[in-house]
């Protein structure tokens, strides 16, 4: 009995975890198909948004996972990809 309770607590804690994978910030984070900057910078420039603004973007990748990306507007009005997260189990998605 003394080994069962810690195992149950661990199971409960792990069951509450969200099934996501975070890539996080990396200077070498490359765009993937579906990213705003995949194939180059977009043709339209974000002229009204202040430099340093955050631009969120979400899409479904070729594996069916929901992808959340974060971009930052650079001084030359280009977009820099700074963060990417994956939602691995779309069946349990809130949306």
Task: Set down the secondary structure blueprint.
Elements: H1 4-15, E1 20-22, E2 54-60, E3 66-73, E4 79-87
Antiparallel strand pairs: 1-4, 2-3, 3-4
Protein name: Transmembrane protein
Keywords: Signal
Signal peptide: 1-19
Description:
The structure is a single chain. The chain is α+β, with helices and mostly antiparallel strands and 95 residues long. It has one domain. Helices cover 13% and strands 28% of the residues. It has one helix and four strands; from the N terminus they run H-E-E-E-E. It has a four-stranded antiparallel sheet with strand order 1-4-3-2, with no helix packed on it. Strand 2 and strand 3 form a beta hairpin. The chain is elongated, with a radius of gyration of 18 Å. About 15% of the residues have low confidence. Keywords: Signal. This is Transmembrane protein.
What descriptors fit this protein?
95 residues, alpha+beta, four-stranded antiparallel β-sheet, 1 helix, 4 strands, 13% helix, 28% strand
What's the short story on this structure?
The protein has 95 residues and is of the alpha+beta class. It has one helix at 4-15, and strands at 20-22, 54-60, 66-73, 79-87. The radius of gyration is 18 Å and the shape is elongated.
């Amino acid at each position: 009995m003394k080994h069962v309770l810690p195992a149950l607590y661990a199971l409960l804690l792990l069951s509450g975890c969200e099934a996501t994978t975070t890539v996080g910030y990396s200077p070498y984070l490359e765009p993937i198909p579906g990213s705003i900057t995949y194939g180059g910078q977009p043709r339209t420039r974000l002229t009204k948004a202040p430099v340093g603004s955050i631009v969120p973007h979400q899409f479904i990748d070729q594996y069916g996972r929901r992808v959340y990306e974060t971009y930052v507007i650079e001084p030359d009005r280009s977009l820099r990809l700074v963060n990417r997260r994956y939602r691995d189990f779309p069946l349990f998605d809130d949306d």
